[in-house]
Amino acid sequence: MHLDRRVTLPPAVLAVLPLVLFLLAVTVVGQWPTDAPSDAGAANRGAVTGRDDVQRRKQVAAVPPAPRGSAWTGHAFDACRAPSQRVMDRWRTASPFTGVGIYLGGIHRACEQRHLTPRWVTRQLRAGWKLLPIWVGPQASCTGFDHRIVSRPGPLDRYGAARADGARQARWAAATARSLRLPRGELIFYDLEGFDTRNERCRRSSLAFLEAWTEQIHRSGYRSGVYSHVNSGIALLSRTGSAYTRPDAVWYAWIDRVGGMPGEYVADPAFMRASRVHQYALDTSVEFGGIEMSIDWNFVSLGATSRPSRPTSCEALAGRVPPRQVRAGERGPVVRAVQCLTSAGVVHPAKVSGQYDAATVRAVRRFQARQGLRPTGAVDRSTWTSLHARGHQPVLRKGARGEPVARLQRSLNAAVRARPLRVDGSFGDATSRAVVRYRKHLGLKGKSVVTPRVWTALKRGKVVPPRGR
Fold first, then answer.
1. How far apart are CA 267 and CA 39, in angstroms?
2. pTM
3. Per DSSP, which regions of 221-290 are E strands?
4. Other CB atoms closer than 10 Å to residue 436's CB: what's the count?
5. What would the pLDDT profile of 105-120 be if each residue is shown by its tens digit?
6. Paired residues of 393 in beta bridges
């Protein structure tokens, strides 16, 4: 049975009721938190946040303290699968990387992770690796992914469904991090791939989702990060106002020079200057320590700053220092080159100390003994000649180009006391003259060709004495 339960109010009450209801509505809307960017134009209509609400947010979403050693600057790689322990051990010294991105989970995680276990995580942290955990859940509503963020505005344009899902994803990510024994306070990055920011509902629902992610990650004891393309998710985050709960760090994709921050997208550079990861190269196949992988390259600056630069190779570093006498007690780039060359690819130049210590002396003596040189532990012309000549030994003639020519030029600069060759990997006239002179010293015909016999002499450290001797 349906009952008609009407209530009759006095005329005086009916007269003031509309005004009372209007004032209540204004009060509620004025105190409701906003998810809109501060300069997003039409997206801001009706989105006003009071000072009291800002304070409430800061209390609810307090940022957990970062674990000790979490501030660092360097390079990191990320691959679809967490590498095996053998790869991690080899790349720990042979590669320029200090950090590694790991995919914890999420509905859109692309690869299975058979190596990613609590024991694996513990071993990497003990070895000194920095971990960058990533969660790949629902994507922006205007993308073609199977699982997307709900774009319905809901009551008062709060995008409540998107917020609920953001909090839910954060709880799952935090639970997975705890199960893998990731320390409390570590960053966990949400992977939100690029999307069309011109779509208002897509834009607002994505920001609502990410804000809920950040607040829930904080409540779960971790710090929040967001990965996205610099012209979509990162651009939106950099334009949010003080009422919005931003992530503690951003990881932005921008295939450009290391550390680049395009001003046309980043409205607040300070937001990204000290807590950022820059993904600047994608899907590159590289080899370190004899192990090859397809990876993405990242420059990292989390709570610490340094001048962004690409990591140099051992050969490039050696090509920038003169082949002068070097002995124990010295330090600097020339020592780093010696340490790198004597390690035979085991230690990357980014991981050497630059201090000519007892370990370096032993490494130089071992190298000299293997090459048939006098094991003095100091690097002289003969040792430099031999160090630079190691590697592939093709027959080279005038007109040849490439890495073997560059190694030849560095070796000849040490072996032949003449005007130094420009190390450009091009077998031109100057290189030809140096080859002819070196061949004559070996008792060979004065041809401009580098044969196996010439390579053997260079590897054994044979040098041309100064003119007049």
1. 10
2. 0.78
3. 223-229, 249-253, 275-288
4. 16
5. 999 999 999 999 999 9
6. none
